[in-house]
UniProtKB/TrEMBL annotation:
Broadest EC class assigned to this enzyme: hydrolase
Protein name as catalogued: Endonuclease V
Highest taxon of source: Bacteria
EC number(s) per entry: 3.1.21.7
Residues noted as binding Mg(2+) in the record, renumbered to the chain: D43, D115
GO molecular function: endonuclease activity
Entries under InterPro entries matching the protein: Endonuclease-V
Organism whose genome encodes this protein: Streptacidiphilus cavernicola
Summary of the function given for this chain in its UniProt record: DNA repair enzyme involved in the repair of deaminated bases. Selectively cleaves double-stranded DNA at the second phosphodiester bond 3' to a deoxyinosine leaving behind the intact lesion on the nicked DNA.
Cofactor(s) needed: Mg(2+)
Catalyses which reaction(s): Endonucleolytic cleavage at apurinic or apyrimidinic sites to products with a 5'-phosphate
Site-annotated residues for Interaction with target DNA: Y85
Subcellular location: Cytoplasm
Keyword Transport: no
Length: 245
DNA sequence: GCGACAG
DNA sequence: ATCTTGTCGC
């Protein structure tokens, strides 16, 4: 798929805030038009990883058949973060390399599962919203920890959930994807509802806490996960001295 | 003012 | 994110 970063890509925090404020009104939330046939899981690995703009990054995209969760496509890209880590602006570190990886894809996924927040963001425009606007595809955010908001403890079983509220508004849902595990934070990105987002995350995580695409464990049964892929891409780039973009 | 803060 | 041993629990 052919993609393009916005022309006014920011170089500082004020510029980044302006980009978020400008793009936020473009987000649309509605039910998915049809059950997605393919899901793409996205992840980024860091080297250095201390939050500086110079950190080396590698992105991986794994596209799965939504029904069988089998891999149908994959892509990776390496580069430099180019932006320091600031809570609320972390999309500016990951978007360039994620877009580069998405461009390598032979197929166009029906839904993008992003590692981080969507709506549950100080300016209501987390990574998942941003990537949705850039791609025009349905997106959702699955985060391992919330960025903001308050909620009640969800029930103990898989599928139990509790709304996350911030400023009187429901911005996410704490969702238990397996019995007894710590809940994940699910929020809408673009072209999806919170109900649909939670249903998709639950369906994509039949075995572990995180979706099959984002599992931070070595592939147990030969299933490649985005996290594993991008680490390998970073290591391969180091070995051959590939120039950073 | 103080603390918290996706990856 | 990343650095990392042992350890608690099913």
């Amino acid at each position: 798929m052919r993609l393009q970063l916005t022309p006014d890509w920011p170089s500082d925090q004020d510029g980044a805030h302006r980009v978020q404020e400008r793009l936020r009104p473009l987000v649309r939330n509605r039910p998915l038009p049809a059950p997605p046939r393919t899901l793409a899981g996205l992840d980024v690995a860091y080297e250095g990883g201390h939050g500086s703009a110079e950190d080396r990054v590698a992105a991986a995209v794994v596209v799965l058949d939504a029904r069988t969760l089998e891999v149908v496509d994959r892509a990776t890209a390496v580069g430099t973060a180019g932006f320091p880590y600031v809570p609320g602006l972390f999309a500016f570190r990951e978007l360039p390399v994620l877009v580069a990886a998405l461009e390598q894809l032979a197929t166009t996924p029906d839904l993008l599962l992003c590692d981080g927040q969507g709506l549950a963001h100080p300016r209501r425009f987390g990574l998942a919203c941003h990537l949705g606007v850039l791609t025009g595809l349905p997106t959702l955010g699955v985060a391992k920890t919330p960025l903001l908001g308050s909620w009640d403890e969800p029930g103990p079983f898989r599928g139990d959930s509790a709304d996350v509220r911030d400023g009187g508004e429901v911005v996410a849902r704490m969702l238990r994807t397996q019995d007894g595990v710590k809940p994940v934070t699910v929020s809408t990105g673009h072209l999806i509802t919170l109900d649909d987002a939670c249903a998709q995350v639950l369906a994509a995580a039949p075995r572990y806490r995180l979706p099959e695409t984002t599992l931070p464990q070595p592939s147990a049964g030969g299933t490649p996960f985005a996290d594993r892929l991008c680490r390998d891409a970073l290591a391969a780039a180091d070995r051959s001295g590939v120039p950073l973009s």
